[in-house]
């Protein structure tokens, strides 16, 4: 059965190289470190570049969280994968399963993300960020009890970043699912539903 949250084909196709003007080329050059194997921009970038000003603002904001943020990389990627799972976003799951593996998450850990924080094997901080992600998904707020525990493990900047990171990746998943952005070849597939 087809995922009802996922478009069957791109509703907004990525820009082809012959559609780039100087402004778009410059903005896409800002993400040259994130190209596919053919040195083309990833589909997420080539799609969002259709709105060049919004694309640049989003890239700057996203890079701050992904590259310049203070949350530890493991926890950051677990949060993003959990959001990708909640949104049933094949694009974000595939991209961040790959990024997660690159920063040291094992295949078993990535496969365990759909089981959530109650699954065994997570550290205290990993359980907390997964729980916070689930709470934000469910009720749009981190509970007082979870917040108190987060305060024992994270500094103020990290506490500010956490819900913003969750929100940023919900935004991305909403957009990628709605636009029907296709995954690049070879990315891990979204795992089947868990019961």
Task: Give an overview of the whole structure.
- The protein has helices at residues 22-29, 43-48, 52-66, 73-86, 90-102, 107-112, 124-139, 144-153, 156-179.
- The model has no long low-confidence stretch (mean pLDDT 89).
- Helix content is 57%, strand content 0%.
- The protein folds into 2 domains: 17-64, no CATH class; 73-179, AhpD-like (Up-down Bundle), CATH 1.20.1290.10.
- Helix 4 runs parallel beside helix 9.
| Strands, total number | 0
* Distance separating the two termini: 17 Å
**How would you sum up the global shape?**
globular
Portion of residues in beta strands equals under 5%
Helix-strand pattern: HHHHHHHHH
Looking at this protein, list some descriptive labels.
195 residues, mainly alpha, AhpD-like
Strand and helix map with partners:
Layout: H1 22-29, H2 43-48, H3 52-66, H4 73-86, H5 90-102, H6 107-112, H7 124-139, H8 144-153, H9 156-179
Helix pairs in contact: 4-5, 4-7, 4-9, 7-8
Briefly say what this structure is.
The protein is mainly alpha-helical and 195 residues long. The protein contains nine helices and no strands. The chain folds into two domains: 17-64, no CATH class; 73-179, AhpD-like, CATH 1.20.1290.10.
């Amino acid at each position: 059965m087809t995922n009802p949250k996922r478009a069957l084909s791109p509703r907004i196709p990525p820009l082809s190289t012959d559609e780039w003007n100087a402004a778009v080329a410059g903005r896409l050059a800002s993400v040259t470190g994130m190209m596919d194997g053919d040195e083309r921009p990833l589909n997420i970038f080539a799609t969002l570049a259709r709105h060049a000003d919004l694309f640049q603002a989003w890239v700057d904001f996203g890079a701050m969280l992904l590259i310049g943020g203070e949350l530890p990389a493991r926890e950051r990627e677990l949060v993003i994968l959990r959001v990708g799972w909640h949104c049933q976003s094949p694009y974000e799951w595939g991209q961040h399963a790959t990024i997660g593996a690159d920063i040291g998450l094992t295949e078993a850990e990535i496969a365990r993300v759909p089981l959530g924080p109650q699954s065994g094997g997570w550290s205290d901080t990993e359980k907390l960020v997964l729980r916070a992600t689930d709470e934000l998904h469910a009720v749009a707020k981190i509970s007082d009890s979870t917040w108190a525990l987060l305060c024992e493990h994270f500094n103020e900047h990290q506490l500010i970043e956490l819900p913003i990171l969750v929100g940023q990746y919900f935004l991305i998943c909403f957009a990628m699912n709605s636009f029907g952005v296709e995954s690049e070849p070879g990315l891990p597939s979204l795992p089947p539903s868990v019961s």
